[in-house]
Write a sequence for this structure.
């Protein structure tokens, strides 16, 4: 298909498609003349993925490029692809954050987590913010159990899926299921609050 | 204390403190002369809360004002304060999003959620993004159970806490525990992946 049809099919403006081509997020089409190229189903899928990562995942173009790189690098195991994706994703907590309280929590849980995991600093920063405003940290164990349950669903490979599908499922799911989890938490809060305190 | 000491105690620059005073996020101090005012412990706590909401919660000044308004309005029940806070918080999903798939999921779960809940549109938007990129929606039930478990911890009132403390605990916790949940999920993903696929 021509670039105009690629744009119509995906709802992404032609100028934006050209921008993604220039930025290398989208592989070039097959050149059919000096000024025209043709695009295939792979381009449609990749465009939809870029839009979802940008619009729903809230990623920058640089972060999208890094995440797509994790999917495209066939040399990565699933474990390494997931680690590379975590490194590419915001929020980027300062190197200066002391991750000790998070490390201690993770060790107490018996989780196998490398010291270089960016999420350790993200967690330590959030814990320190809670302490600074005098919020109790008593929910951490409940949170950790819930997080582990969803992580098992995230990393579970569908039987018969290829390596590429398994990596895509884990890496893309890490980004796109975050807003699902946060929205469900707020809806559940409303349910709990309605039951305990009355919907009024 | 003077504004300079308030600044030193909280680590917030004097210019920023003055900005929050002008924006009405921080109540005025007690005027001691035409050019000086004195501030108390309440100002220290409020400043720390504002910084945590901005820096860790990622809220805009407008959203912080709305969230603080929910805490300060003594007329709200906990249920209404939580609903008002949800309305004030990002992400603000388009009114145009069809929330039907999210409504159906919530109904299937038996949750008591009002049609006007912004999180319904947030959830529907995220579900639609997952479908657009061909990601399976088979994790939703696991996610819903985990979300409900953390929501119960979020809304639980500490025995003996005042209404103001209970509201603060629920509203501030809604914002500040989000990064905790997301960081724990990534750490748990690393643990699950290390166990199942080897840390390499």
């Amino acid at each position: 298909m021509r670039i105009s049809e690629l744009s119509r099919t995906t709802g992404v403006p032609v100028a934006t498609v050209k921008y993604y081509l220039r930025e290398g997020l989208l592989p070039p089409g097959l050149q059919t003349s000096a000024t025209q190229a043709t695009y295939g189903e792979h381009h449609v899928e990749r465009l939809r993925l870029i839009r979802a990562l940008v619009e729903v995942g809230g990623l920058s173009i640089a972060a999208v490029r890094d995440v797509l790189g994790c999917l495209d690098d066939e040399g990565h195991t699933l474990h390494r692809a997931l680690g590379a994706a975590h490194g590419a994703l915001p929020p980027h907590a300062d190197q200066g954050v002391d991750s000790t309280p998070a490390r201690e929590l993770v060790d107490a849980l018996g989780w196998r987590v490398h010291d270089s995991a960016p999420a350790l600093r993200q967690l330590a920063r959030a814990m320190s913010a809670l302490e600074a405003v005098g919020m109790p940290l008593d929910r951490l164990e409940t949170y950790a159990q819930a997080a582990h349950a969803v992580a098992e669903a995230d990393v579970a490979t569908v039987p018969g899926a290829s390596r590429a599908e398994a990596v895509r499922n884990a890496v893309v799911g890490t980004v796109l299921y975050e807003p699902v989890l946060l929205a469900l938490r707020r809806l559940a809060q409303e349910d709990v609050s309605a039951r305990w305190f009355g919907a009024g």
